[in-house]
Design goal:
The complex is a heterodimer of chains A (about 750) and B (about 220). Chain A has 28 helices and 27 strands. Chain A has 4 domains: about 25-165, Rossmann fold (3-Layer(aba) Sandwich), CATH 3.40.50; about 175-335, Glycogen Phosphorylase B (Rossmann fold, 3-Layer(aba) Sandwich), CATH 3.40.50.2000; about 365-530, Rossmann fold (3-Layer(aba) Sandwich); about 550-710, Rossmann fold (3-Layer(aba) Sandwich). In chain A, about 35% of the residues lie in helices and about 15% in strands. With about 750 residues, chain A is of the alpha/beta class. Chain B has 4 helices and 11 strands, in the order ααβββββββββββαα. Chain B has an 11-stranded antiparallel beta sheet, with helices on one face. Chain B is elongated and about 70 Å long. Classes of the chains: A alpha/beta (about 750), B alpha+beta (about 220).
C-alpha cells in the first residue's frame, strides 16, 4: 500500500569510521567488592556488544568474582606485580587509547607512564581509603580521573589533583532473583530464619570502616522489641578483618544476640539474599558510593544508612539517612518501623554501565585538522537534514569540517550531495548506540583537536554523553531545530542521571545554543544566537495551475498534521471536483501505520502520495498554494522553499513560521491549532482570489531572496564557528566536568 | 600465712579466675562463629553431639522398625531407622512427631559418617576424637581439645577458633571446596564492600598487621 513512498534504511550508504579501540583495564583483584563489581559490569556490558577487552588482574583471589563471558582476564600467577605490569606496558604501549586502572598504586602506574601509556584511574573510595596520591598525577600521564561520587571528586581537588576529574556514579545491576519469593524462602531456610523474623542485611567486607559492631548493637536493641536477625554478607580480606570478625562475634555473644547473627561470607550471587532480607543496614564510617545501598534500593528494600558522604548522593525515598553518630537505639527504631516483607517488588535503576568506556576516549592530539565536527542523527529526507546539507556545502571551502551521521539514513540523496562536494560524511559507529557513538566521536575530537562540535538534530543521549566527557577546550554548539529538541532532551533525563549528569548541566556546558527563530522560551544557556535557515532562490513555479492544485512538501509524519490537511481538502473538493492535493515526501517505517491511515482517509479524493523529492522539480510545477502545517516548527524549509519558488503559502503559526510570514502580504498564517475548517477557508480564498495569491507569492519570493539566503545563513554560522576562541576554555580550571546528584529511578 | 602469701594466693586465684572467664568467653565466641557460619546445622548437628551419637551407635546395632528413644547426642528425640539402598537412614522426631532432622549413617574405620543434605560429617571416635564436616561451600574441623577450624566464604584461609582465641589456621582445606568457592559472576553479583574489596590486598602481600599468624598465610597463590 505504501510502495514507492516508504523509506527504508539504505545499508552501507555512509562509511563507518569507528575511532574506538579495544578496552584495556588493570585492576588489583577480582575480590567480591563494589569496585570490582563496577569494572566487571562495565566490561560485561561491552563484551556483550562484541567489544574487544583486555583485563589484567594483579592479584589472584580464590573467592573471586568470575569474569563475564567473552573476557579472559590475565591474572598474575607468578613473579612480582612490577614485572607483571612492566610486561603489560610493553604490550600496551602501541595503543593510542589510555588504560583504565582500579585500585592500583602509583608505583605500579608509573611503570605504565614510563612507557608512554596514559592511565585513567577510577577512585572508588573516599579519601580515607585511597592508596594513591592524586597530587602526584601529572595530567600528561593521567589525562582524566574518574571519581565514584561528587564528594570524592571534591576531595581529589582538595588533595591537589591537577588532572580533569569526572564523576561517574555506577548503578548496579539487579537480577530477578532479588524479587523472587522462592529465593527468599530458600535462603531464609538455609539461614535458619523463620518466616516471621525481621531479617536485616548488612553488606561488605568485615573491616573497621563498616562498623559492624554498631550493627550488632542495633540488632541487640531491635531484639528487645521484635523477632529479628542480622546477616552480614561479606568476609575477611586481611588480618585487620580477622580481628574485626573476632570483635563483632564477641560483641554478639556479650549482647546475647549471637544466635541471631548469620555470617555466610562473600556469597557468589547476592540477589537471593536481597530477596530474603527485610531491610538493609549500612552504618559505615565513610563510603565512596555504596553499591550495596543502591542495589538494595533497586531490589525494593528499605535502607537505613549513616549520613556519610557517599550516601548523600543517592536520592531515593526508601533510603533513610541517620546522623553519622546516631545512637543504636535510634537506628533500631528506624529499622523497627518496617515490617517483614510479604511482597517483593523491585525498582531497578536506569543504568549506563558502559559509561566507563567514555572515560577512555582520550587520545593524543595529532594536529588541528578540523574546525567543526557536525553531529547529526541521519541524512533522511527532512528539513533539519536539508538545512545542514545546505550549510555545510556552503561553508566547506571556508571552514574545515566533518559530518558525523549517527544512524542509518533512509535516502542516499543528501549523502551523495555531500560526497559530490568533497564532504565525506561518516558513521562514528556501526550502530546508533549512543554510548558507542559518543565514545567514537570523543576519540575523534581528541585526536583531531576539533575546535567545535555542533549538534544538528542529534540524539539527546549522544549529546549528553559527549558533553559530559568533552574536553574543556571543545566548544559545544547545539543547533536546535525546534522546541521538540528540548522536549527530547528532557525525555532523556533518566539516561542523564545514569551518567551523573542532567539536561540542565548539558545546557550549562553548551557554549552556544542556536535557535532557528526567536523562541519565547528555551533552556538557560550561556549564549544563545538566532540563525534562521536559508534556501536557494531556486526556479520559479510555472505559474497558476489550470485547476486547483495544492502541495504539501515534507515527511509523512503525525507532526505535519496531514489528517487536518486531507479533511480540509475533502471539504473543498465538492465545489472543486478537479482539485488535487500532492503530498511530496517519504514515509519513515515508524510512521507506516500513520501513512496507511492517511491513505484510507484520502480514499476517493484526488490526493497523490508522490514520495520523496530531494531536488526542486516539484516546485517548478504549477500549484495554487503550498500548505505547511506543523507542531513545534523551527524555521520550516518547506515554507521557505515554496516562498522562494513563488508558490503562495498557507501555514499555521507554529515556531518560527511567523518570522517567515510576518503578515498577510506574504501568505496566509493560520492559528497554530488551525482546524480543517479554517484551513479549507484559506484554501478557498487562494482559489477564489488568484491575483491576491500571486501577489503574496511574489512578495514572499522577494523576502526570501533578500533575507533567507543560504549565503546569509552560512555567514552567520561562520561567524560563530570560525571565531572559535578556545583559549578561554583552555584557561578554565582543569576540573570542569559537571555532575548532579543522582535521582531515584522511576 | 603472711601477707605476701595471701597476696600471692589472691593473685594466683584472680589470674586463674580471669583465665577461666577469658577462656569461657573465647569458647562461647567460637561456638557463636559455628552457629553463625553454619546455620543449617543448628541446633541438632553440633559435632560434640555427633561424637556422642556415633560412640553410642557403635555400641548398638539398630533394628529397622524399632526406634531409639533419647539417643545420645539427640536427647529428647526419637530416632527411627530405615534401610534405603543398603544405607542406614536415620530420622529424628520430637515427642510430638515433628521432624527434627534426617541423615544417613555409615560405618567408617575412624568411627562413623553422617550425611546431612549436601554435607558430610566424618566422626572420629578414636583416642583423639574429632569431627570433620565437608560441604561444597564450607567446611570445619572440630575437636574437644583444639576447638574449631573453619573454612568458609568468610575468609580466603581457614580460621582457628577455640577457647584460646581466634587466628588464621595453618591447616589446609579441601580442593573441592576451593573450586566451589570461585563464584560465577553471571551478571548478577556478589557481596560488596562498598569501596573496593581489592583494597586490602597490597597490605596483605606486605604481611598485614596485627594478625596472630600474619596475613601472609592468606595471600593468594601467584
Amino acid at each position: 500500500m505504501l510502495d514507492g513512498i516508504l523509506a527504508r534504511p539504505v545499508r552501507d550508504l555512509i562509511p563507518v569510521r569507528d575511532a574506538r579501540e579495544p578496552l584495556r583495564a588493570l585492576i588489583a583483584s577480582l575480590a567480591p567488592g563494589g569496585a570490582e563489581r563496577i569494572v566487571l559490569e562495565w566490561l560485561a556490558a561491552e563484551a556483550a556488544r562484541g567489544r574487544a577487552i583486555e583485563l589484567a588482574v594483579l592479584h589472584a583471589r580464590r573467592n573471586a568474582l568470575a569474569a563475564p563471558a567473552g573476557i579472559s582476564p590475565r591474572v598474575r600467577c607468578g613473579g612480582d606485580p612490577a614485572t607483571f605490569v612492566a610486561a603489560l606496558a610493553c604490550e600496551w604501549r602501541s595503543s593510542r587509547a589510555p588504560v583504565s586502572t582500579h585500585l592500583v598504586g602509583d608505583d605500579l602506574l608509573s611503570l605504565l607512564w614510563r612507557e608512554g601509556i596514559r592511565t585513567i584511574p577510577t577512585v572508588h573510595n573516599a579519601r580515607g581509603g585511597w592508596r594513591n596520591d592524586p597530587a602526584r598525577w601529572d595530567p600528561a600521564d593521567v589525562p582524566l580521573v574518574v571519581a565514584c561520587a561528587d564528594h570524592v571528586r571534591r576531595e581529589l581537588i582538595e588533595a591537589g589533583c591537577r588532572a580533569p576529574i569526572v564523576t561517574l556514579r555506577h548503578r548496579p545491576c539487579v537480577g530477578a532473583a532479588a524479587f523472587d519469593a522462592s529465593a527468599r524462602e530458600r535462603v531464609r531456610a538455609e539461614l535458619g530464619i523463620a518466616s516471621g523474623t525481621f531479617l536485616v542485611g548488612a553488606i561488605g567486607a568485615l573491616k573497621p570502616q563498616k562498623d559492624y559492631r554498631r550493627a550488632i548493637e542495633v540488632l541487640a536493641r531491635l531484639r528487645r522489641h521484635r523477632d529479628a536477625a542480622l546477616v552480614i554478607l561479606g568476609g575477611i580480606l586481611d588480618a585487620a578483618g580477622l580481628e574485626e570478625l573476632d570483635r563483632v562475634v564477641a560483641l554478639a555473644v556479650e549482647r546475647g544476640v549471637a544466635d541471631r547473627l548469620r555470617l555466610p561470607g562473600f556469597v557468589p550471587v547476592i540477589e537471593p539474599y536481597f530477596a530474603a532480607c527485610d531491610a538493609l543496614l549500612n552504618v559505615s564510617r565513610f563510603e565512596g558510593l555504596s553499591m550495596a545501598v543502591q542495589e538494595a534500593l533497586a531490589a525494593g528494600l528499605p535502607v537505613v544508612a549513616t549520613d556519610v558522604e557517599g550516601q548523600r548522593e543517592i536520592s531515593h525515598r526508601a533510603l533513610e539517612r541517620v546522623p553519622r553518630d546516631a545512637a543504636s537505639e535510634e537506628i533500631a527504631r528506624r529499622l523497627g518501623a518496617h515490617a517483614v516483607r510479604r511482597e517483593l517488588a523491585g525498582r531497578p535503576w536506569t543504568r549506563a554501565p558502559r559509561a566507563g568506556s567514555l572515560a577512555l576516549s582520550w587520545r593524543e592530539r595529532r594536529s588541528r585538522s578540523i574546525g567543526t565536527l557536525f553531529v547529526t542523527a541521519n541524512l533522511n529526507a527532512g528539513g533539519a537534514q536539508r538545512s545542514l546539507v545546505n550549510l555545510v556545502r556552503a561553508i566547506a571551502r571556508r571552514h574545515a569540517l566533518e559530518v558525523a551521521v549517527c544512524s542509518e539514513s533512509t535516502h542516499d540523496a543528501f549523502a551523495r550531495m555531500l560526497q559530490r562536494d568533497g564532504i565525506d560524511p561518516f558513521r562514528p559507529a556501526a550502530d546508533a548506540d549512543p554510548v558507542a557513538v559518543a565514545e567514537s566521536l570523543l576519540a575523534r575530537i581528541h585526536r583531531q583537536g576539533a575546535a567545535n562540535a555542533c549538534f544538528w538534530n542529534a540524539d539527546p543521549k549522544v549529546k549528553l554523553a559527549l558533553a559530559k566527557f568533552a574536553p574543556a577546550s571543545l566548544r559545544l554548539v547545539d543547533v536546535s531545530p525546534g522546541h521538540y529538541a528540548f522536549d527530547e532532551m528532557d525525555a532523556a533525563s533518566e539516561f542523564a542521571e545514569a551518567l551523573a549528569y542532567s539536561p540542565r548541566a548539558y545546557y550549562e556546558r553548551l557554549d552556544l545554543l542556536v535557535l532557528k527563530y526567536r523562541a519565547a522560551s528555551h533552556p538557560a544557556c550561556a549564549r544563545v544566537a538566532v540563525i534562521p535557515n536559508g534556501v536557494h532562490p531556486g526556479p520559479a513555479t510555472s505559474g497558476a495551475p489550470p485547476h486547483p492544485r495544492f502541495l504539501v512538501s515534507g515527511r509523512i509524519a503525525p507532526s505535519k498534521r496531514l489528517s487536518t490537511v486531507i479533511e480540509a481538502f475533502a471539504a473543498l473538493q465538492p465545489g472543486h471536483p478537479d482539485a488535487e492535493l500532492h503530498l511530496v515526501g517519504p514515509v519513515e517505517e515508524r510512521h507506516a501505520a500513520y501513512a496507511s491511515r492517511l491513505r484510507e482517509e484520502a480514499a476517493g479524493l484526488r490526493v497523490f502520495f508522490r514520495g520523496a523529492s530531494f531536488g526542486f522539480d516539484h516546485l517548478e510545477e504549477a500549484f495554487s498554494a503550498a500548505i505547511v502545517l506543523g507542531t513545534h516548527q523551527g524555521c520550516p524549509n518547506a515554507v521557505l522553499e515554496a516562498m522562494a519558488a513563488g508558490i503562495p503559502v498557507v501555514a499555521n503559526d507554529s515556531g518560527g513560521t511567523r518570522e517567515l510570514i510576518p503578515g498577510e502580504r506574504y501568505g496566509w498564517l493560520l492559528p497554530e491549532a488551525a482546524t480543517a475548517g479554517e484551513l479549507a477557508l484559506a484554501l478557498r480564498e487562494v482559489i477564489d482570489r488568484p491575483e491576491d495569491s500571486r501577489s503574496r507569492a511574489r512578495a514572499a519570493r522577494e523576502r526570501v531572496r533578500t533575507e533567507f539566503t543560504i549565503e546569509a545563513m552560512a555567514e552567520r554560522y561562520l561567524a560563530i564557528l570560525g571565531a572559535a576562541d578556545t583559549s578561554a576554555r583552555e584557561k578554565m580550571e582543569a576540573c570542569s566536568f559537571a555532575s548532579v546528584p543522582a535521582a531515584q529511578p522511576s | 600465712m603472711d601477707i605476701f602469701e595471701v597476696l600471692a594466693f589472691v593473685g594466683i586465684a584472680g589470674y586463674l579466675a580471669y583465665s577461666y572467664l577469658r577462656r569461657k568467653a573465647q569458647g562461647e565466641k567460637a561456638e557463636a562463629m559455628f552457629r553463625s557460619m553454619f546455620p543449617d546445622l543448628q541446633p541438632h548437628f553440633h559435632p560434640a553431639k555427633l561424637l556422642d551419637y556415633v560412640r553410642a551407635r557403635q555400641a548398638r546395632e539398630p533394628t529397622p522398625g524399632f526406634p531409639w528413644q533419647d539417643p545420645p547426642g539427640f536427647a529428647g528425640a526419637k530416632a527411627s531407622f530405615e534401610k534405603i539402598d543398603g544405607r542406614e537412614r536415620v530420622t529424628l522426631l520430637d515427642a510430638a512427631g515433628t521432624l527434627l532432622g534426617q541423615f544417613f549413617f555409615e560405618d567408617h574405620p575412624e568411627g562413623g559418617v553422617l550425611r546431612v543434605g549436601q554435607g558430610k560429617f566424618t566422626v572420629n571416635t578414636t583416642v583423639q576424637p574429632r569431627v570433620r564436616y565437608w560441604h561444597p561451600d564450607r567446611e570445619f574441623k572440630w575437636s574437644p581439645r583444639k576447638g574449631w577450624t573453619f573454612q568458609t566464604r568468610v575468609a580466603e584461609s581457614s580460621i582457628d577458633s577455640s577457647d584460646r582465641g581466634t587466628s588464621w589456621s595453618s591447616s589446609s582445606d579441601s580442593s573441592a571446596s576451593r573450586a566451589a568457592s570461585v563464584a560465577p559472576f553471571a551478571g548478577a553479583g556478589g557481596a560488596f564492600d562498598g569501596g573496593g574489596a581489592s583494597q586490602a590486598w597490597d597490605g596483605a602481600e606486605r604481611g598485614g598487621a596485627g594478625s596472630s599468624e600474619g596475613a601472609s598465610s592468606s595471600a593468594p597463590a601467584y
